[in-house]
Amino acid sequence: MQPIHFGLTGLAVMGQNLARNIARHGFPVVVHNRTQSRTDDFLKLYTSEGTFTGSTDVASFVNALERPRAIMIMVKAGQAVDAVIQELKPFLAPGDVLIDGGNSYFLDTERRVKEMADNGLWFLGVGVSGGEEGALNGPSIMPGGPIEAYERVASIFTSIAARVDGVPCCAYIGEGGAGHYVKMVHNGIEYADMQLIAEAYDLLKNGLGLDNDRLAEVFARWNEGDLESFLIEITARIFRVKDPETGGFLVDSVLDRAAQKGTGRWTSESALALGVPATTITEAVFARVLSSMKDERVAASRVLPGPSGKVSGDPDAFIGAVRDALYASKIVAYAQGFDQMRAAAQEYGWRLNMGEIATIWRGGCIIRARFLNRIRDAYAERADLPNLLLAPYFTEAVATAQENWRRVIAEAVRLGIPTPAFSSALAYYDGYRREHLPANLTQAQRDLFGAHTFERTDREGAFHATWE
Question: Where are the alpha helices (DSSP H) in 127-211?
Answer without folding.
Answer: 131-137, 147-160, 178-202
